[in-house]
Amino acid sequence: MNFSNFYKKQFTNIYVIRELMCNPDVKQVLSVLDTIPVHIVTSKEEIPDSDMHQHTLFINLPKAPIAGRCPGSKGHLCCNYLTIDLYEGCTIGCTYCIMKSYLNFSPVTVNMNIDETISLILRWARENPDTTIRIGTGEVGDSLLYDPLFRLSEIFIKAFSPFPNIYFELKTKTNFVDHLLHIRKKGNTVIGFSLNPPKIAGEEEPFGATIGERFEAAVKAVRAGYNISFHFDPIIRFPGWEQEYVKVVQNLKLIPGEKLAWISLGTFRYTPKLKGRIDSRWFLFDEFVPCKDNKYRYIQRRRRGMYKIMKEAIENIHPDVPLYMCMESPAMWEYIFGEKPEKIDTLCTIFKRIKRCS
Ligand code: SF4
Fold first, then answer.
1. What is the pLDDT averaged over residues 138-163?
2. Distance CA 234, CA 50 (A)
């Protein structure tokens, strides 16, 4: 793929915080995107309303570190994941993207305060030597969509590699892994792929890689020495969904169990605001209930059935993989796993909350 043309097609304008104009990484990016107009600003507020959309690239220098706790979801069990808001926003265009509830009118933002963010995370790692720190950049955008251009993940991977308690996850719907394969010291880096049946990926994730391409990238990453994770999230019901999801699960045979860091499951959920933006999509015509976190989920009986089918199919292939549900209620955990995650051997380590996180 010609990455320069690919990225030039993504953006119509670039805004850069003045202090970053001498940053060599930013200079390199601007030289690749040399046909796109560049505007120098001192803050996001200077971007005109007409450019507040996803085809504007904003290269930002936040004042505070960009790492923190995942906000979790009221009334649902949190997996104590930590997040780095490195790439905010995304042009993959998933119809169900929860960020449409709040980020839709924002430019794609790349936050360049890397050094202070890394220092903070290394401090957490030192202060919590016996706790697994699970941290990733895929919470408010795709970890790898813009990474071949900015090459920021490499800086994090190298900085975290000496720390056995840091599991740094790059979560993606792309197959953009080639620029990471040469890195010698990977530590416990995990490359995570979101998975759905081809019907959902094709219709609802318009600019993502195909599911076949994601698995090919996963195999390449394993060969290069990376750990892998998979996220079946959101699982969406449609006629025949059971067979289609189980077919995708069969591909997990391509990855050796010892290279699988974890697999997550999450059924489709939406906020009222998101519904307002996507109310023509067919998958909204199902039975949903409002939950304590103000999101709507499939009725509990349906969710139970969905999780049971997925859990059984995955455990048939990889019985020992750490498998968890994202943002589910304690009652659902009891029903599906018979326990809360802190009592499950494969999960208690990765779900443990780190003590100091400020
Ligand atoms: S890849 Fe993630 S961030 Fe990007 S549109 Fe899809 S759901 Fe949203």
1. 97
2. 32
